[in-house]
Amino acid sequence: MWRSPVSAHGWGPWGRRFKSCHPDFFFIFAIMKKLILILIPFLLFNSCSELTSNKTNSPNIILITLDGVRWQEVFNGIDTNLLQNKKFTKNTSALENMFFSQDNKMRQKKLVPFLGSFISNNGILIGNKNEGSNLKLTNDQLFSYPGYNELLTGFADSSITSNNKIYNKNQTILELLNNNQNYAGQVAAFCSWDVFPYIINDKRSGVPVSAGYSNLEKNKLSKLESFIDKYQKMMPLFRYNVRYDLFTHILSMEHIKNKKPKVVYISYDETDSFSHDGSYDNYISSLHNTDKMIEELWIYLQKDSFYKDNTYMFITTDHGRGDGDFPNSMWTSHGVGVEGCEDTWLAILGPGIEKNKTEKKQYYVNQIAPTIAKLTGITIDKANTSEVIPIK
Ligand SMILES: [Zn+2]
What we know:
The chain is an alpha/beta fold. The chain has helices spanning about 5-10, 15-20, 25-55, 70-75, 80-85, 90-100, 105-110, 115-120, 145-155, 175-180, 195-200, 200-205, 225-230, 245-260, 270-275, 280-305, 370-375; strands spanning about 60-65, 125, 135, 185-190, 210, 265-270, 310-315, 325, 330, 345, 345-350, 360-365. The strands form three sheets. It has a seven-stranded mixed β-sheet with strand order 2-11-7-1-6-4-5. Strands 10-3-12 form a three-stranded mixed β-sheet, with no helix packed on it. Strands 8-9 form a two-stranded antiparallel ribbon. The longest helix has about 35 residues, at about 25-55. It starts with a helix and ends in a 16-residue tail after the last helix. Bound molecules: zinc ion. Zinc ion binds near residues 68, 143, 144, 272 and 276.
């Protein structure tokens, strides 16, 4: 039962003893009561208008990518053929214990419980080719820079033919949001791969990008940020230009908790690096860990009043990979000539998402940025904005 802490201590109108024994207090109380009555509508109006503009006009956007993660694992869990393939899997029994089941839905639940179970029950998951849902790239290069450009700008650019550190001439959705009055100065990117300052064109866009081993915060680092700043390069390097995803995750969480940005892009990369190395053990454990990191972030967002019920999370990848241990479709590879790597996947969570609204049919990666643009009320000139993904 609710009990007024004021009346419980005898300060309220029910505390009769004040009236008889302390008339001054009663007088002061009456004046304060009047003052509060005058102030309440003013305070309520201010907080409500702030709440309304944050809740309705400009939702927060968290966009996450897991480089080169296959739709096959996202929907079916660990690949039973690759699990038994000694060329790629060194510790079969350990992976079996953690992730194997005869049932593919159960395998999905074990490997990526957040993506597989939580999102498929509470959001939208596109790209299960076995069930007639498909998400395809439209660029014909099928590797990272062209893929991220298509995803972030809403269109494929045939002039992008390498992963070289060349500043992107196209504006990403992050730049467009940073140029919008509702989002200006409230956009940030945390990326494991050090090419992202060029893909996002941090110089022109003004979007701060922490990529590779660079730190976003310059002054007043939190304890965790200082720790990472000091020790990240003391870890054994698996790629000279890729930061461990855990560090990218922690830095993005710290920024979200301390600065409350409205738009955050987080790009994880280990999965692609481990796949190119032909290590299915590491690819699988990295994917499983990233799923946990994303879950941790989503749980935090739902506890924070700034983000709760006003934040959309998009999770996807820049390209797929080959289908297995096949010469024309090696799982370790992607790009022209590798069959199947144009197929990717997409997960969406957020307020008002209707999971049955999205039909099982063909969608394209170039529809993702226009879908975010529609949610946030901005326009993308070159993109096909009539074809947004129906989510609510
Ligand atoms: Zn790659």
